[in-house]
């Protein structure tokens, strides 16, 4: 499979729970070798989307295809590793024994157990009972289990939920390591910080509707603006409205915010205003942070 090949394509997916529409015409593609984040507040439809593609939640309408539809879903899912619920292992068995059992059930070579325990940093605890593990260690063991079959894609639903800062850091490092081996990753999260740190691509969901899909860096790439101030902001706004590069103007805490249709250099804007008898007290060129962009998207009515 080459790097441009599609691992998962979702087309016009809709899901109703009674009168509640959980997914509204959701479509996206997952290409090999990237780390995708489905980002949105709780209740936005992230888990429902993952559940449908993993054949554990029934869709209302629309469809999805694994590996360009070259195989049936149950066959395709053998190439998928997923953690969509809390890790469920036998508490009285050791980490190693639990993974041996998974290998036995799925017909996987037992040699994979030590390899995956090392990847998630649990080699020294492989003979410890699952019941003695912290929440973070349980989650790491679950990741090891999901990787035993060397999946083409790893799917994680809120992988750091409930973990302490150290546990969060460890899980994120493991995700980066897995991605570095070429495994495609799809993770759902309500944490912007998580997506920003580990993902290459993001899909933003709110109330079952896609608000943005594309590169993480692209979310704020087009939102460059100027923050201005003068002794006469009313006149400043009037003059700015005549500039061809200005898209719209807002005010915030006594400053005038100028959003652009096209790139404009600070010196050129300053010269234009000076020629129109406006002397600025303050001029800063700014770029919306990913957080500002995300909040703007998800809080929109």
UniProtKB/TrEMBL annotation:
Keywords of this entry: ATP-binding, Nucleotide-binding, Transport
GO molecular function, one term: ATP hydrolysis activity
Domain of life: Bacteria
Pfam families, per the entry: ABC_tran
InterPro entries: AAA+_ATPase, ABC_transporter-like_ATP-bd, ABC_transporter-like_CS, P-loop_NTPase
The keyword Metal-binding is assigned to this record: no
Domain ABC transporter: 8-232
Keyword Cell cycle: no
Family indicated by similarity: Belongs to the ABC transporter superfamily.
Listed name of the protein: ABC-2 type transport system ATP-binding protein
Organism listed in the record: Flavobacterium segetis
Upper lineage: Bacteria, Pseudomonadati, Bacteroidota, Flavobacteriia, Flavobacteriales
């Amino acid at each position: 499979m080459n790097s441009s090949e599609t691992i998962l394509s979702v087309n016009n997916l809709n899901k109703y729970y009674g009168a509640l529409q959980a997914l509204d015409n959701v479509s996206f593609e997952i290409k090999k070798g990237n780390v995708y984040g489905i980002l949105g507040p709780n209740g936005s439809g992230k888990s429902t989307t993952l559940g449908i593609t993993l054949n554990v939640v029934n869709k209302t309408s629309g469809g999805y295809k694994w590996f360009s539809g070259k195989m049936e879903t149950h066959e395709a899912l053998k190439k998928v590793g997923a953690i969509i619920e809390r890790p469920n292992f036998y508490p009285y068995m050791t980490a190693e024994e639990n993974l041996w059992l998974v290998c036995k059930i799925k017909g996987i070579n037992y040699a994979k157990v030590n390899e995956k325990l090392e990847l998630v940093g649990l080699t020294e605890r492989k003979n410890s009972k699952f019941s003695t593990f912290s929440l973070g260690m349980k989650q790491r063991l679950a990741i090891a289990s999901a990787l035993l079959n060397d999946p083409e894609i790893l799917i994680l639903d809120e992988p750091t939920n409930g973990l302490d800062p150290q546990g969060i850091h460890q899980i994120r490092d493991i995700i980066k390591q897995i991605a570095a081996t070429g495994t495609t990753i799809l993770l759902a999260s309500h944490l912007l910080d998580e997506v920003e740190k580990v993902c290459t691509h993001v899909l933003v969901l709110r109330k079952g509707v896609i608000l943005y899909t594309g590169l993480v860096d692209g979310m704020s790439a087009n939102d460059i603006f100027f923050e201005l101030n003068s002794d006469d902001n009313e006149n400043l706004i009037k003059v700015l409205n005549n500039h061809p590069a200005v898209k719209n103007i807002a005010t915030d805490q006594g400053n005038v915010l100028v959003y652009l249709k096209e790139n404009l250099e600070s010196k050129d804007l300053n010269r234009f205003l000076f020629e129109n008898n406006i002397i600025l007290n303050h001029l800063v060129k700014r770029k919306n942070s990913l957080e500002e962009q995300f909040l703007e998207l998800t809080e929109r009515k």
